[in-house]
Amino acid sequence: MKQHHHGAGVHAHDPYELGAAGMPYSTQAEYLPIPAEAMGSLFLPDRLKKGYHVEEIRDGVYYVTSGAYDAMFVRTGGGVVVVDAPPLLGENMLLAIKEVTDEPVTHFIYSHWHTDHIGAAGIFGPKVKYIAHEKTRELLARWPDPRWPVPTETFANDSTLDVNGVKLELSYKGQNHCEGNIFIYAPKQKVLAAIDIISPGWSAFKHCDASENIRGWVEAHDQILEYDFTAVVSGHVNRWGTREDAIASREYTNDIVTFSREALAQVSYQELVERIGFSNVWVLWENYFNEMTNYVTKKTLEKVSSNGQIWAQRLAGADVMTKYHAYSILEALRLEWGVMSKLESDVTLNARAQMG
Fold this sequence. Notes:
This protein is of the alpha/beta class. The protein is built from twelve helices and twelve strands. The protein has two domains: about 200 residues, Metallo-beta-lactamase, Chain A, CATH 3.60.15; about 100 residues, no CATH class.
């Protein structure tokens, strides 16, 4: 594994002169190169020329990507159903649909409320039926904006949309990436849309894709694999995924959870206390969490995964993002699973001993 020395030494890049108070910078040379197979549609001639790539996954279900954000639409013979409209695609969504069908867009499904995925929903106009989970409607109505119309139809747990005999099953299994984030499944075509959980061929973006409920996000990997699918549209980054991609993402995530549990139970704090002291307790906690995060990151990146590759070879960007996932999962284990760190456990035991 390459050695990284972020923010250290006389040549550290620090344009804001923040020192330890700022975030460190890195360079491409400090990480493994991205495998060619992870590039997906990024360098395809049509995407480079048009700014988007569209392809039929199966039987009228289409994948469209900007090269970083992706969405899905379904041709039914009685109108087009669109799932998400990222601003990075914008009006290219209209061009992608027009490229393959003359059918009008009749329905729009919000996967969730985050505007990086649905911020161009308004381009389809007021005649379209906008469908979402009731939590998504609540959040979009709280901060209304014509760029993302408030949903006109909602559901609480499960719903089936049937357009001209083409069915999409909508399911809410609880908060994961955010409240209201749903699964959209085309059973006939065996295509699933599950946004901001996995990133096919890649590690997810920082902090478990900036998820609000990390325990729910981890669980969603299992929920994805409960579906009988052969293709999954994930929202990022530049290709649709396979069942093997979902399995790899779950294995990677579970490794981080396992090593995070180890770190909380085993990583010592005594040396940090002696070296740093208590005068600024946040400095102590920063270093303690950094120690545990580095433990998890090293364990994860050095582990040989089930296919014989280390994670930075198997998932593009894993050597960049694992440290962020490790921190988020460590904190979630404390807050959402109820797992105490060694420091907290020792303090609790000492307090009990003094009381009794």
